[in-house]
Amino acid sequence: MLNNHPALKNFFAVVGMLFLFLLIVFVIVVGILFSKFKNISPNPTPNSITTGEYNPAIPIDELTEDQKKLLSTYGIDPSTISITDAQIQCATKVLGQKRIQEIKQGDTPTLSEMIKAKSCL
Fold it and tell me: How far is the CA of 37 from the CAs of 23, 26, 31, 75, 86, in angstroms?
């Protein structure tokens, strides 16, 4: 039937090529998005979701009362915060290794340090 209508044959060839092109573009876009977001994990690690356990880098009970008060001042409930290794690494880049060690040993961060490290929480 298409042999008798060359214009129809060309039309379906063009539509087929267009469909194939769009399919290839879709696969490429999905591949790029997948590769971009595959290494992003939520705050609780996938392991903690499957096992029901969560082990923060700094347990809540190791925070000093002043540190807990400071968190409350900034609207962060100290009983629900989890300080992870990733957050510590981020804060180390922002505040420096020496200052992070001082804070881990009980020193209270200043207002300017909290503002600087806000994106890490």
Answer: 21, 17, 10, 29, 17
Residue 24's Cα: distance from chain center in Å?
A: 28
CB 48 within 8 A of CB 54: yes
**Contact of 117 with 91, CB cutoff 8 Å:** yes
One digit per residue, the tens of pLDDT, for the chain of length 121 reads 556 777 778 888 889 899 988 989 888 888 777 776 655 544 444 444 444 454 556 667 777 888 888 878 777 787 777 778 888 888 899 999 998 888 888 888 888 888 888 888 7
Q: How far is CA 68 from its chain centroid?
A: 25
Sketch the domain layout of the chain as residue ranges.
2-37, 56-120
